[in-house]
Amino acid sequence: MCLALSWEHAARTERSAEALQDALEPHMSKKTIDKHWGEYHQNFIEGLNKQLEKDDKLYGYTLDELVKVTYNSGNPFPEFNNAAEVWNHDFFWESMQPGGGDMPKLGLLQQIEKDFGSFTNFREKFVEAALTLFGSGWVWLVLKREEKKLEIVKTSNAICPIVWNHIPLINLDLWEHAYYLDYRNDRAKYVDVFMNHLVSWEAAAARLTRAEAFVNLGEPKIPIA
């Protein structure tokens, strides 16, 4: 990953975040988007760029590759936190949509029911994971390649499941800056609103469809749009 690519990435992220600035209201306010993306997310991008300016040992990596190589088998390089937080935040913005929530459909719903017993069970486990995560971090629905099944994963701070070769489908930001302006200290309300009104099952379904190029899930087959 080079500095020029990082700035190109920043411009793409800016367009994505600007499209969301008031589109998620009243569930996520423009004030929160401005603060979360405009300050915290941008700080990670700028911090990464400054680190990449110092030498060229990481030149040529994509962002995915940069996250994995800087994780360094659990012994992170200094660049890891910024790179992973840029990746995590990009994925978070793209895990939401106006009018989101409700339930997934078709193949994704079938896969959730197969791996969790029911959508209700999945939802309860996802919410429980979010509420029991200690400190700051993320909750993810991932496809585990070796197990060939969906699982819920909690990660602390900047850790991203791609470092373990999992395929993320959705994530939820549980750093306090993601919700304190809208929900103060009420993490439970924030998580409930995310599940009811914000999460994009359309994005998750598209990601699962792409994942089938790498993981043979057997039945049920995920329909191709």
TrEMBL record:
Keyword hit for Chloroplast: yes
Q: Which reaction does it catalyse?
A: 2 superoxide + 2 H(+) = H2O2 + O2
Which EC class heads this enzyme's classification?
A: oxidoreductase
Manganese/iron superoxide dismutase C-terminal domain location is 107-206
Q: Which residues form the Manganese/iron superoxide dismutase N-terminal domain?
A: 22-96
PROSITE patterns membership: SOD_MN (PS00088)
- Compartments, record wording: Plastid, Chloroplast
One GO MF term, please? superoxide dismutase activity
Task: Tell me which domain of life the UniProt entry assigns to the organism this sequence originates from.
Answer: Eukaryota
Family under the similarity heading: Belongs to the iron/manganese superoxide dismutase family.
The protein's name is Superoxide dismutase
